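Hello again, I could really use a second opinion on something today. I've been puzzling over a protein and I'd love to understand its fold better. I'm sending you its amino acid sequence along with the backbone structure tokens. It would help a lot if you went through both lines with me. I've dropped the whole record in just underneath, so have a look.
***
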Amino acid sequence: MRAVLQRVSRAAVTVDGTTVGAITGPGLLALVGATHGDTEAHARRLAEKVWRLRVLDGEKSCADLGAPLLVVSQFTLYGDARKGRRPTWQAAAPGPVAEPLVDTVVAELRALGAHVETGVFGAMMSVELVNEGPFTVLVEV
């Protein structure tokens, strides 16, 4: 599994003009993608890593600060644009595989004590954020 983490002072996701998830920071926006071989164990490890990763001010983690997270599923994290002019999505897990894994990441984060907001799996979403730093990091498990 992969996550692109962005340190934010605020972030929100809307679907059809309606805000479905929003946080005010400091916190993290986590764009999460799954590939074919990923399992629930990967999802749990990713959640733990995201929750405890020291990327907020003062080398603090979301766990240290009780900082909120906005988790948005994003299959395009497994896009491959090395050949041609059009990316392929063959490495991205299909929805029936990816959705429960993203749900596991969210559930595990909540079980760890996180305040988590989410997007809507498979929906056309608009994500708005203020990236502090700017700071963006890729996490893979």
